[in-house]
Design goal:
Elements (H helix, E strand, L loop, with lengths): L1 H5 L10 H8 L6 H15 L4 H4 L5 H7 L23 E3 L19 E4 L11 H13 L6 H5 L6 H9 L10 H9 L5 H8 L2 H9 L9 H10 L3 E4 L5 H11 L22 H10 L6 E5 L2 H9 L3 E5 L10 H10 L1 H16 L5 E3 L5 H13 L20 E2 L13
Parallel strand pairs: 2-3, 2-4, 4-5, 5-6
Antiparallel strand pairs: 1-6, 1-7
Helix pairs in contact: 2-3, 6-11, 8-10, 11-13, 16-17
């Protein structure tokens, strides 16, 4: 593990102490356990001493002067976002009854961890599911689009293996039974690996069609950069696909430390990817925000001990394109609200800290989390609650200066 950490980019200073201590125990723990331990031990290991103080971004100074950079811009909303019956920002954090803080009182958000499909690009996350649909078609065992998208958010090979275990279509045999009917044997890991050899080429060919940035991405990346916050990414995509998407993002914004599923031993829902990105950016988890659209995003963020913001309108559970969402808003707003409730419910099962419509709502939430951090609060102050109805935990987030139902200009 020391070799891995030593290969990470540096800017003249050492890696955070919590990662160095994890590396020192690497003879006794696997990579996964080292990083996971680092995330949970971080509050007591990384927030002491003057070295960490030097890692603060200039956003710390902004709260002292009670102002934000002049370059901050308004983030536009898509047309369909104005048609709604529920507030666009929900949270399970009761801002009126906060627990006692225990952290430093002058350190705010330092980094933002972003997902790709369904968060920055590709409304509805169509690019992966189209490829899985076509891949099974190629091997003569057709699957439905619901089956293709069911394990969304995971490493693409794991996603493929999980499709074989699905039994979600009432009118069809389980996928593995259909495979046996075709080939006479049940699929195994070797079967998945042989199929997966075709995946990267098919995915790259498909990405260009499904890589249009979501409304508000350019402005949000601009604001994050002007606040001095670093960006990293997590994804189920492999390195080649991540590079392609990073080049697209570079035209409208900036991703400082891109990471992908091929760079870690285990992808989602394990926390290695966000922790690797934070190691590269030299940011402790408690000062980072994970943003994504799937349950896998939520889980990796919670396990990495970072703040978690989940997206609804553009996620794989709603599964609609930009044009389809606009059409629903005009002609069938009841169906749009029904889909929103489905996407919302999927996220509440993992209990992220905030659930919002889309990337266009993210910046006011980042500012709210920034203030929570500067007040001494950390993600571990707001642990998931054991409840049979997680939906009931969420209330409209009353963010100062932000209207719950903005009027179209």
């Amino acid at each position: 593990m020391l070799n891995i950490l030593n290969s990470l980019p540096r800017s003249g200073s050492s890696l955070p102490s919590f990662l160095l201590r994890a590396a020192a125990t690497s003879n006794h723990f696997p990579f996964t356990q080292c990083l996971r331990d680092a995330a949970h031990k971080q509050p007591s290991l990384a927030l002491q001493g003057h070295k960490f103080r030097q890692m603060r971004s200039f956003s710390t100074d902004l709260v002292r002067s009670n102002k934000f950079p002049d370059e901050i811009v308004n983030v536009p909303w898509p047309e369909f976002a104005y048609v709604r019956k529920t507030p666009p920002i929900m949270s399970r954090i009761d801002l009126a009854n906060l627990p006692s803080p225990s952290g430093p009182l002058d350190t705010g958000v330092l980094g933002v961890i972003l997902d790709w499909a369904g968060t920055l690009v590709d409304y509805g996350v169509f690019s992966p599911q189209v490829v899985y649909y076509n891949l099974f078609e190629k091997f003569g065992v057709p699957i439905t689009m619901d089956e293709a998208k069911a394990p969304m958010g995971k490493h693409k090979l794991r996603h493929l293996r999980d499709i074989f275990e699905l039994d979600i279509e009432p009118d069809l045999h389980p996928v593995r039974e259909r495979w046996k009917e075709k080939y006479g044997v049940y699929p195994d890991d070797k079967t998945a690996e042989e199929m997966f050899e075709h995946f990267p080429r098919m995915q790259l060919a498909c990405l260009e069609e499904y890589s249009t940035p979501i409304v508000g991405v350019a402005e949000t990346l601009h604001n994050i950069d002007k606040m001095g916050w670093k960006t990293t990414t997590t994804t189920g995509f492999l390195t080649g696909m991540s590079i392609f998407l990073t080049q697209i993002a570079d035209k409208i914004g900036k991703i400082d430390f891109p990471c992908d599923a091929q760079q870690v031993p285990y992808g989602r829902p394990m926390p290695e990817m966000p922790l690797l990105g934070l190691a590269r950016a030299k940011i402790p988890p408690s000062y980072a925000v994970k943003v994504g659209d799937t349950q896998g995003d939520d889980q990796e963020g919670m396990d990495a001990n970072v703040w978690v913001v989940a997206l609804v309108d553009t996620n794989t559970y709603v599964n609609k394109t930009h044009d389809e969402l606009n059409e629903l808003a005009k002609n069938n707003p009841e169906e749009l609200e029904k889909l929103r409730k489905l996407g919302f419910k999927k996220h509440t099962e993992k209990q992220p800290h905030f659930i919002i419509d889309g990337i266009w709502n993210l910046f006011p939430v980042l500012r709210q989390i920034d203030l929570l951090c500067k007040s001494g609060f950390h993600p571990y102050h707001f642990k998931p609650t054991d409840t049979s109805d997680p939906n009931s935990l969420y209330q409209p987030a009353k963010i100062p200066g932000y209207m719950n139902f903005p009027h179209k200009q």
